[in-house]
Write a structure and sequence with these properties.
Helix content is 42%, strand content 21%. Strand 3, helix 3 and strand 4 form a beta-alpha-beta unit. The longest helix is centred in the middle third of the chain and has 40 residues. The chain is an alpha/beta fold. The relative contact order is 0.09. A 7-stranded mixed sheet has the order 6-7-5-8-9-11-10, with helices on both faces. The chain starts with 9 loop residues before the first strand and ends with a helix. The protein has 3 domains: 92 residues, Rossmann fold (3-Layer(aba) Sandwich), CATH 3.40.50; 165 residues, P-loop containing nucleotide triphosphate hydrolases (Rossmann fold, 3-Layer(aba) Sandwich); 61 residues, 2-Layer Sandwich (Alpha-Beta Plaits), CATH 3.30.70. Helix 1 runs parallel beside helix 4, helix 4 runs antiparallel to helix 5 and helix 5 packs antiparallel against helix 6.
Length: 428
Amino acid sequence: MFERYQGGESAILVHINFADDSEREALDELELLADSAGVSTCAVVTSSRGAPQSKFFIGTGKVEELATLVQMHQADVVIFNHSLSPAQERNLEREVKCRVLDRTGLILDIFAQRARTHEGKLQVELAQLRHLSTRLVRGWTHLERQKGGIGLRGPGETQLETDRRLLRERIKYIQKRLEKVSRQREQGRRARQRNEIPTLSLVGYTNAGKSTLFNRLTQAGVYAADQLFATLDPTLRKIELPDAGTVILADTVGFIRHLPHDLIAAFKATLQETRDADLLLHVVDCADEQMQDNIHEVKAVLEQIDADDVPVLMVFNKIDKLEQPTPRIEDDEQGQPRSVWLSAQQDTGIDGLLEALNRLLAGVLVEHRLTLPPSAAKLRSRLYALNGVVAESFGEHGEFVVDIRLQHADWQRLVKQEGEQLERFISG
């Protein structure tokens, strides 16, 4: 669409320590992000400031240092561990003579590499276009751009408006496609809710080990690697619990500190699996020095997507990296499982997690009103045998109106054996 610097494989990282804790990022996380994006780091520039500088974000002395390092290492891109304004990116590129990328742009690039499904690619493209729409002016600085007015329009301005219109049209098109995907997901969720199948959603900071745990529980073979955002596309699988019956387990994209708002908006359909879950398994890397900060960041994102009221079971993963790796279940004051300690990589403590899930889900009661014709006498007798009939009355045409209350596992067995026929009898 317009000229841009072509990013390569070597990068210089820039990390600024700010006095305000809310503005701080982790340098080691930036290095992991760069590694996940497939670039090699040839130098790291650090500095301390009270606040960002308006023109370059960093001081003029650091800009000169950056330009020297870029020339020395023949770097292809400079990556900032912070969010830059379009003007700051443009000013920096003019001085350092190479492409400048901020934290949001880096994360978007990783997401673009990881997307595999059609939905995932659409979501990433939507986030990229929203991010790009504020930076279009960068592509036309080589053309004359005069101020507007009759007889005063430069050739670049006309092209810029054309590009903006094309961007808006593409964004609208992708949003319509994603709305269709969202409706399809909603149909699947309603079907699971009708069958009373609980949904468990794995959430957690990126690289906490969610996909490895997902593979241990489901043997799904989902891609798992020791890198940030190894999982992007959501995966759902059924698992069977001894007492609780069938449950759906969802593996979702990992969260990260200061997750870009464009990404949260674009991945709304994916994150819906988290918001509508019956139980969240919050996977935590218990060997990470930033563990408490990571837990706080995940809770903050859950609030943003209105999932903070969903029940949570804490899963402290990677205990094999601790000095005393002890798999265990910790209960709350009511005697319900509150947290599980395990190592998904070493396959240690998985039985404890299954036991905790059994205890949390097996006690769930399913209540329905069934309208049974006389021909369903066999099913009616089974309901009585399970002690699931709360009340019974007769309809106008001789049918049985039965109020039932069953353990979730018993209801699951009935659904599996009776199939769609049972759904037709549900009247309330």
